[in-house]
Amino acid sequence: MTGAASTTTAAAAAGDRPIRRVLGIETSCDETAAAVVEDGTTIVSSVVSSQIDLHARYGGVVPELAGRAHVELLTPVLADALEQAGSDHTGRGIDGIAVTHGPGLIGSLLVGVAEAKALSMVWGVPLVGVNHLEAHLFASLLEQPDLGWPLVVLLVSGGHTMLIEVTAPGEYRLMGGTIDDAAGEAFDKVARFIGLGYPGGPAIDRISAQGDPTAYAFPRSMPGDGYDFSFSGLKTSVVNRVRKEPDASTADVAASFQEAVVDVLVTRARAAAADVGARALCLAGGVAANSLLRARVEQVCADDGIGAFLPSRALCTDNAAMVAAAGHWRLHHGDRSRLDLAADANLRLVSTV
Ligand code: KG4
Ligand code: ZN
Fold this sequence. Notes:
This protein has about 350 residues and is α/β, with parallel strands linked by helices. It has helices at about 50-55, 65-85, 105-125, 130-145, 185-195, 200-210, 230-245, 250-275, 290-305, 315, 320-330; strands at about 10, 20-25, 30-40, 40-50, 95-100, 125-130, 150-155, 160-170, 170-175, 280-285, 305-310, 335. The chain is built from eleven helices and twelve strands.
């Protein structure tokens, strides 16, 4: 993965003031978020407005509704984050702006990108577009600024499941990914099927505490010899089992499904960490909030004598503090986006150093 985002230049404009406080803006999916982070590691304010209630009745995120909700919510969320940071609509004390410009829902991304450009122009501070996936990686650095390298990051969210070797901030190598559903997507689809509603991950996590994880031996699919994942067979297997056995305990089905997902994720992540001699295994993305996944990763890392970095739950799911942290690092290294910064629904994670 090499190459640089086309809208980003590596030349900091002469006369920029030192980058200390960065405003982050995140609108890639169904969370409208703004945060102010100081020196890339201190969260001064972080406001997240979730649209879960809006989308719950449809069983998933409705892109058109998400875009419109961001338009309504972004102004108050921004005002709140700025006020909590002792700033205001003039951008007093803000040295730069970071915004997620992909990947994500195009209509949602555009809302944040347009706002960030306008504020950058009016306040006269530099702008940088941030990759949402890179932002998730930086969530760990917010809490553990002295992470050692190389790291293997298991990035598991609603849209992505990836194993990434990080040799330094900005230097990424994709080791494997899902060939069908993302882990979070599997949690959400299975939860909907067994009547647990949306979002499915937290609901399955909760109910699994009352279930027997050995009740059903659901398949563990590990395609190929490398580090890829596949969850669609597991999902189908759960659906078939519940159709055959409609009275099956929901808690047992949920716990057995969660056990299968976590087993596969941890097995492959552990092997990837050993393969590259990683000093630590790091979790990122919404599914990293899962209790069983966190416990297992801690356990295998202790067994293997490597570090385990588990961002706090609030930093696993979408937020703008991680965007500001990634943006701070990029701005500090001279990255600047122009005012023609585009939103890119399919933006890829590339090494840019
Ligand atoms: O990173 P994120 O907030 O948004 C995306 O970028 O996708 O991840 C959302 C995903 C959803 O699929 C949600 O069900 C899942 O993360 N999730 C969980 C848990 N909390 C959120 N999955 C399993 N266990 C959880 N506790
Ligand atoms: Zn995310």
